[in-house]
Amino acid sequence: MDLVLNVADYYFFTPYVYPSTWPEDEIIRQYLSLLVVTNLGAFILYFFFATLSYYFVFDHSLKKHPLFLENQVYREIKYTVQALPWISIPTVLLFLVEVRGYSKLYDNIEDSTYGWPGVIFSMMSFLFFTDMAIYWIHRGLHHKLVYKHLHKPHHLWKIATPFASHAFHPVDGFLQSLPYHVYPFIFPLHKVVYLGLYIFVNVWTISIHDGDFRVPGFLEAVINGSAHHTDHHLYFDYNYGQYFTLWDRIGGSFKYPSAFEGKGPLNYMKTITEEKLNDHGGNGCKNEQFFSGKSLKTK
């Protein structure tokens, strides 16, 4: 994050905001600058990629689904806008510690013990480490003593849109992001790679809320994608993982996505539409059984 802070200082904060008597490496100034940069970056990432996903990937027929809430998109955005500034407060403290040199982030490829292979390995280990940690944090947030206080707001969205991706209670949002920030304090990681991974995880979080879209067949058993996460929102007790199905399989919480079996929300909407076309005046009650209390948890 010091790379971003240095650019912000050079082009904006030093010439236009702070007095010349305030050193760039002063801790209060760094915290305030990081707070601005982090919030601005979070909102840009969220609105840019969630908007693209909403208009070009998300199937808008899902907005007619019986579990899609009134004014849901507006409510998802409002919840996110209210939560992100609060999430950033503890996040920036971690960025500050990193900027002041207490992490294992490094500047040059030569600083990696194994050169480029070490850099590539660190990228993979970042994904596997954070996937493991987020799995257990996420699963813990579903515990009955915690769920209603922290994680329940995110499960308001049974049929989520990309704008629901960051609609968390602030404590929930920070806890699930914590592994990303902890990793570079434990393992070496290139600074530019870290920034790239930080962007990637935000885009990934948006992508798994874009409907029940499929991944290539040979990756279905490995990647915990949108279809898996759609069932997490619908059925509650399954598919806690972030990127991979590994920990759900180990923890006994893996559920083969209903979308892959032709029973997902999009399939439901197609069935309803076809019935209305074929049965003029039919009410489609038969298909409502798919989302009855017998087959769907609505905690």
Automatic annotation (TrEMBL):
Pfam families, alphabetized: FA_hydroxylase (PF04116)
Chain ranges passing through the membrane: 31-58, 79-96, 116-137
GO MF term set: delta7-sterol 5(6)-desaturase activity; iron ion binding
InterPro entries recorded: Fatty_acid_hydroxylase, Sterol_Desaturase_Related
Keywords in alphabetical order: Membrane, Transmembrane, Transmembrane helix
Subcellular location: Membrane
Cellular component, GO annotation: endoplasmic reticulum membrane
GO BP field: cholesterol biosynthetic process via lathosterol; negative regulation of ferroptosis
Source organism, top-level taxon: Eukaryota
Fatty acid hydroxylase domain mapped to chain residues: 124-252
Record-given protein name: Sterol-C5-desaturase
Phylogenetic lineage: Eukaryota, Metazoa, Chordata, Craniata, Vertebrata
